[in-house]
Amino acid sequence: MPQFRLTQKFPTDCKIKQLHEPVITTHPLDDWFIDRMIVDRKIIAMITHAKSTFTFFIPYADAGSAIKMIVYFKNQLKELFQKNLLPALVLEVEKLFVVDKKILGHMNDFKRCAPYSGDPWPVDWHDVAERINNMPTKGGEQDWLYPVERFNNLLGINLPKRKSRFSAF
Does residue 160 lie in a domain region? Predict the structure, then answer.
């Protein structure tokens, strides 16, 4: 059963008073972290996979509220797998408190990569997540890898890497 480790801000938004300690997970899709950030006076949830750092950005307005975020995320994850011709996964949720904070450093870096205020056009959060998932990060004992590559290796799947739109020359 998937577990979502929540930072201090997200449980407040969901009005969760009692959080449980994380349990040991066995399935590769079991461990996710949820944090929130504010961009142009809109609250955005950042959901990051613990082992691969594969990341989703979901505006609260798209999900309806913080309380509905987990169900909305489940549908986004199923949509990702269906779009890439992978079997849909049905997720159940247990909300947990963040004890292992190694992933939070990555999440803070990812927040800095997200656009902040001042942009006159609406933000395409799928594009932001895709760019971050195709940005090399150092994960644990591994060398520098892309989160999409770690996610693929972990699940034995083949989500496509983003082709660069820009040349270094």
Answer: no
**How many domains is the chain built from?**
1
| pLDDT tens-place string over residues 33-88 | 888 888 888 889 999 988 888 899 999 999 988 888 888 888 887 777 777 766 55
Separation of alpha carbons 151 and 15, rounded Å? 31
Side chain identity, residue 19: L
Q: Which domain holds residue 15?
A: 3-155
| Domain annotation covers residue 119 | yes
pLDDT in tens, 12-41: 787 777 777 766 766 777 788 888 888 888
At 17, which CATH number? 3.30.420
State pTM to two decimals. 0.63
Q: Which of these, 37, 30, 29, lies nearest to 10 by C-alpha position? A: 37
Cβ atoms of residues 107 and 46 within 8 Å: yes
Between the CA of residue 159 and those of 13, 14, 37, 47, 136, what are the distances in Å? 32, 31, 27, 18, 16
Closest CA to 150 of 28, 17, 19: 28
CA distance 55 to 24: 21
Place of tokens 């997970």: 25
Sign of CA dihedral 69, 72, 74, 80: negative
